[in-house]
Design goal:
The chain is mainly alpha-helical. Helix content is 62%, strand content 0%.
């Protein structure tokens, strides 16, 4: 069994979250913030500026002319959409490698993360629960623990797969049995180190655990969106084995799982493809 201290020490080697993006996200919490003020912050980050302009000039908005001014582009896309761009741009750096242990091809985890964030937001609409700005980011980073745990999974993959196949464990159960910790629990520790909101930490930590009475809407939405993303084919070939599907969550919100699945797939597929085309395969 791998020593837990060795795994936790690897958290320190993750690159820090980009300062400009952190600053912009903090300023976006101010409801009185203007597009001009935000433009002054993000204009110094080439990746953010280019993503804003690319999105504004994409078929998604269907403008008749090309927009080259960042301030004008922000007016068109809106500050809510800008927040998504900031998060996507900020976290893209962490997935810009082939992740040992979980991916058979580079970009699998990034696609899964993108699709989970979009499915989560559409799930909120279907469930008719209050809008929550942490839904998108929780979906996007729910598997952040894999960035630390990947190399240890790669070394122990045969032991993990044997437990899945012979002991009929879920991948998560086998992961924890061999490594002392699973990627969901480790993800919560990473986000705590990065000072993320407590409800985001909880949703990430619990996204593979069975629902209980005191779980929040965010907890339920993220664990369900994660499993639906896998069902739609946006996952990794390795830990998709013996994956838990939390269909019973739908009953709490007054909708049958099959009806929910049909609706959320219809609502999400085109948007997932749109975001993929904007951000590539990482």
């Amino acid at each position: 069994m791998v020593e837990i201290d060795k795994i936790l020490a690897n958290i320190e080697y993750l690159p820090p979250f980009p300062a400009i993006i952190s600053k912009a996200l903090k300023r976006l919490k101010d409801p009185e913030i203007s597009t001009d003020e935000i433009a002054e912050i993000v204009k110094f980050d080439q990746a953010i500026a280019s993503n804003v302009l690319r999105l504004c000039n994409s078929s998604y908005f269907g403008l008749r002319r090309t927009v080259t001014n960042l301030n004008e582009a922000l007016v068109y896309i809106g500050l809510s959409r800008l927040k998504q761009i900031l998060l996507l741009t900020g976290f893209n750096q962490y997935f810009d490698i082939k992740l040992m242990g979980y991916e058979t091809q580079k970009g699998e985890l990034w696609k899964h993360s993108l699709s989970t964030s979009i499915i989560a937001e559409n799930t909120r609409n279907i469930f008719k629960v209050s809008k929550n700005e942490n839904i998108f980011i929780s979906g996007l980073i729910h598997d952040v623990g894999k960035l630390v745990l990947g190399e240890f999974v790669a070394e122990a993959i045969q032991k993990i797969q044997n437990l899945v196949e012979k002991k009929e464990m879920t991948f998560l159960e086998a992961e924890k049995s061999v490594l002392s910790i699973d990627h969901a629990e480790l993800g919560g520790k990473v986000l705590k180190m990065w000072n993320f909101p407590e409800e985001v930490i909880n949703a990430v930590t619990k996204h593979h655990t069975p629902p209980v009475k005191d779980d929040s809407d965010l907890d339920n939405i993220i664990r369900l969106a994660d499993s639906v993303s896998m069902e739609m084919g946006f996952g990794t070939a390795i830990d998709g084995q013996a994956y838990e599907i939390y269909s019973e969550i739908c009953n709490q919100y007054g909708i049958k799982y099959n009806a929910f699945l049909k609706k959320v797939m219809e609502d999400s597929l085109e948007e997932i493809q749109q975001i993929e085309s904007e951000y590539g395969d990482s």
